[in-house]
Amino acid sequence: MFRFVSKRALSASIVIVGVVAVIFVLSRMVGDPISLMVQPGMTQADIDALRRYWQLDKPILEQFGIFLSSALSGDFGNSIWQNVPALRLVLQVLPATLLLTTSALVFAIMGALILGSISALYQRSVFDRAIGAFTLIGQSVPSFWLALMLILVFANHLRMFPTGGYGSLRHLVMPTLALGLFPLARLTRLVRNGLVEVLAQDYIRTARSKGLSEGVILGRHCLRNIAIALVTVVAVDFGLLMGGAVITETIFAWPGLGRLMIQAIDRRDYPVMEAGAFVIAISVVLSSLLADLTYALINPKVRYG
Amino acid sequence: MVNLATSAAIAIARGGLGASRKWRRVRVSVVLSAAFLAVLTISALFAPWIAPYNPTTSDVLSNLLPPFSEGEPGSAMHVFGTDVVGRDVLSGVIYGGRVSLTIAIAAVVGAGILGTVLGLAAGYLRGIFDEIVMRLVDVQLAFPFIVLAIMIMYIVGPGLWNIVLALVIAKWPIYARVARAEALWLSKSDFVTAARSMGAGHLRIMFRHILPNAFSPLAVIAAFAVPQMIILEAALSFLGLGVPPETVSWGSMLAAGRVTLEQAWWIATFPGLAIMAAVLSINILVDALRVKLGASIGDQ
Q1: What is the pTM (predicted TM-score) of this model?
Q2: Residue numbers in B near A280 (CB within 8 A)
Q3: What is the DSSP secondary-structure string of B215-255?
Q4: Is the CB of A236 less than 8 angstroms away from the CB of B1?
Q5: What domains sit in chain B, N to C, each tagged with a CATH number?
Q6: What digits encode the pLDDT tens for the residues B250-282?
Q7: Which domains are present in chain A?
Q8: A12–B276: do the CB atoms touch at under 8 Å?
């Protein structure tokens, strides 16, 4: 187990350094932030001073060297626009994004367990068919369009929820729905198909003939067996959610990492872009690392070399 | 990480998004999907003859008309209404479909070819090339691809083929992973050894012997990727990073409709419905095909 963990951790850190390098290259290609800062009346000397101050006059390789060594110690430099440490800006908005993604994920998992179980226990019933149709449609709705429709119906017409913003539980409802529908639909299908397979097994018949209640059978014998598939897909979906949060946050004016990144890209604010991408990459890598470990824990047959 | 995510990808390709054989009442939905896609394709191909209006011609006097408004005497009805400068929304949806479908298909083909070639080479050649390609894949998958696509669009600027480029760069890794996994075990099979002993070169083995055997899962992934690409294109255009301003696409219409959401619900609603219907139809159809061909595609 220790060898497995350290091996995974090593490959995870290689990935993170790679991400930092890609970000550095891409962000330098996006454009020159100084040209956006130039005010009327500035002389060339002022502009050069700005450029020197941000160390943008050095050769690109040297800039990367400076960048990498300080990035590894958690220092991404100051935001070019707000002149405070970029990582601090990112960490300030991170809780909002984590709140949104976690809430969407919990919504999706709970919903999927309920809908998937109903669907599997009452196969070929009206419920099963309705839920089946729902999972197909749920995987076909673009989240940003769903967000607009939710705003249209629940904010503009029914006035049940605010159109956007952050702060209360009511602000969280619509972004969660918009972001969580796709994983909900996907996981429901997974739970349902997994349960159908498990329910047909001999040991379920044995458990039933022992007189165990349906609840115990479902909870202890069935769900545990589909947990592996669930963990894998949830880990993959977490990365998707971090990406989906970018657009959802923009629409709902949710003050999270996605919105910060979009602003930073807009302003060519390299340090914030880099710190943001770094944090996103770390969370995605960690979630798949976690999935690997959970996978090994749940299923003793899995042995990693 | 690599193994887990690859097996998840293959499982999804084989298990599909759609109904398993036990859970299927697809007859009607398959027919409807095929019919809708046929209509969509025909209207995309013959948009200039089918659309009632030019989607970019504005007519400020008849702006923000609700659906089913009469046009000016002698012209067609605005079935889906008009937008803020009086452009016909139905015509926009028809022309937008043309743009969105073209981009999606081109991006899938591009990403499929790039990923397959790199993946096949990685799995067959192994060694340092394999390491480089797979680390690249890992790095890219750690990166939400919308962020990557946004940055690429900022670099290359708006434009039809630039979107295709961004989508290809953002989406090739999945093909690389699957192609590599297939190449890894196929290159140990007897027929490859036989081909090699008969003097076949690397390129010939890779493309004449391994590729045909690895083709089915790749084709399924590609087919399921078309709707994803439609949504991604719409997302980029929605953020104002996709098609150039004067081009109509489903995503750019959504972005325009977002601004007037409160006064005019129809501008954002119909392009969104078009996206959903297209994505749903393709998913249903591909899934039915996959089940039909199940025996050959499912398990090798």
Answers
A1: 0.82
A2: 143-144, 147
A3: HHHHHHHHHHHHHHHHHHHHHHHHTT-SS-TTS--HHHHHH
A4: no
A5: 47-299 (1.10.3720.10)
A6: 988 988 888 888 888 888 899 999 999 999 999
A7: 2-71 (no CATH), 89-266 (1.10.3720.10)
A8: no
